[in-house]
Design a protein that fits this description.
This protein is an alpha/beta fold. It has 15 helices and 14 strands. It starts with a strand and ends with a helix.
Length: 400
């Protein structure tokens, strides 16, 4: 079975084509600037290089059609016919409390996703455009949706509810949903496979640390808490997102800066976090270089960043009655060795002891804690796309 995985944003489409017989990646790339000038597709070639192709892409339909065209290209493509694609899987950011697991696309599912646009206006609208574009171009190919909050749906109500009038939850669905759940799901299961452990017997803290960052407490295979909330703004300090902040500080700043609600949301999402504190960048590589050069605000930003991760490790260990495994993943978590050391410093009382030499690595599956550490600290590169591809295959095959 060949499965095409799509992640459609408001003006972009990331894609990856799998041959599920060996879970081999046949093609991958991304379409950018849909509906804008100078739209293009960037294709990753077999030799590791990329090829950029400019195109006129007024809508997602043309964007998806371009993906198909590239897949069929005799020089850089990997298919002879689009009929070789057996199914298409989509990442959906917000499933709200309507969807607790992956499912086949039906008219009713589309209506459900559309009803949640208010909770993720940019993302869900883009996902729907992608689903409908595929439906128009390939009406007989089954499609599957995998929700970015689904793995977190096992959280108990006392963990996901906010302390606002209960009627607001019932009427407006205001609650903690969490995100990155496909990544948290993958690495929590994969780390147990890697270590030869049974996930139903382990207490795991998963640290998905990228430009967007979140953590989850996975107790015996089920999420009991996660750091992001109704939106991806809550929780950890991130590249350009503030993370946790006093709500009254938000209204205070709105008054002082004269910002409307959406302007303030944009400010906290795009101008805050590490970018706001350091004044340098939202890119941790640039900030790490500035920290090494002695930049005081870069040093401050890194202290704030690692401190918040450490606080969540302590909180989730308390919530689960201890911790057996800590997993680091995503762009920063997989590649910034110094952060992993700093965030785990002083946690000996929890049984966490790092090995600096083992930790001096990036992007590999590896135990990075000391031999005498009671808690296994492990680096596991994430693979959200393969989770989507597997769910797509399983649901399509189950329907046959």
């Amino acid at each position: 079975m060949k499965v095409l995985v799509l992640n459609c944003g408001s003006s972009s489409i990331k894609y990856k084509l799998y041959d599920m017989a060996g879970e081999k990646v046949l093609a991958q790339g991304g379409v950018e600037r849909i509906g804008l000038d100078e739209a293009f597709i960037k294709v990753k070639l077999d030799n590791g290089e990329s090829k950029k192709i400019m195109a006129d892409l007024p809508t997602h339909k043309e964007g998806v059609a371009l993906v198909f065209k590239v897949l069929l290209d005799p020089e850089i493509g990997s298919l002879k016919s689009v009929d070789e694609i057996d199914a298409v899987g989509h990442r959906i950011v917000q499933g709200g409390d309507l969807f607790e697991k992956s499912c086949l696309v039906t008219p009713e599912v589309e209506v459900g996703i559309e009803s949640l646009i208010d909770l993720a206006p940019v993302h869900n609208a883009g996902h729907l455009r992608g689903i409908r574009a595929v439906g128009t171009l390939m009406p007989n190919v089954p499609q599957v949706v995998v929700f970015d909050n689904a793995f977190h749906s096992t959280m108990p109500d006392y963990a996901y509810l906010y302390a606002v009038p209960y009627e607001l939850y019932k009427k407006y669905h205001v609650r903690r949903y969490g995100f990155h759940s496909t990544s948290h799901r993958y690495v929590s299961h994969r780390v147990c496979e890697f270590l030869g452990e049974d996930i139903t017997k382990k207490r795991i803290i998963t640290c998905h640390i990228g430009n967007g960052a979140s953590m989850a407490a996975v107790k015996y295979g089920k999420v009991i808490d996660t750091s992001m909330g109704l939106t991806p703004l809550a929780g950890l300090m991130m590249g350009s997102r503030s993370g946790d902040i006093d709500p009254s500080a938000v209204t205070y700043l709105m008054d002082k800066l004269g910002k409307a609600p959406q302007e303030m949301a944009d400010f906290l999402n795009k101008e805050s976090g590490m970018l706001g504190i350091t004044g340098i960048s939202s890119d941790m590589r640039e900030i790490e270089a500035a920290e090494a050069a002695g930049d005081e605000r870069a040093i401050l930003g890194m202290k704030m960043y690692s401190y918040r991760i450490k606080k969540y490790i302590g909180a989730y260990a308390a919530a689960m009655g201890g911790v057996d495994i800590i997993v680091w993943t995503a762009g920063v978590g997989e590649n910034q060795a110094s952060l992993r050391i700093t965030a785990c410093e002083g946690l000996d009382f929890l049984g966490i002891k790092m090995d600096a030499e083992r930790n001096n690595c990036r992007g590999v599956e590896k135990v990075i804690s000391a031999d005498d550490s009671k808690v296994k600290v492990v680096l596991i590169p994430t693979d959200e796309e393969i989770v989507i591809a597997r769910d797509t295959r399983d649901l399509v095959e189950a329907k046959k």
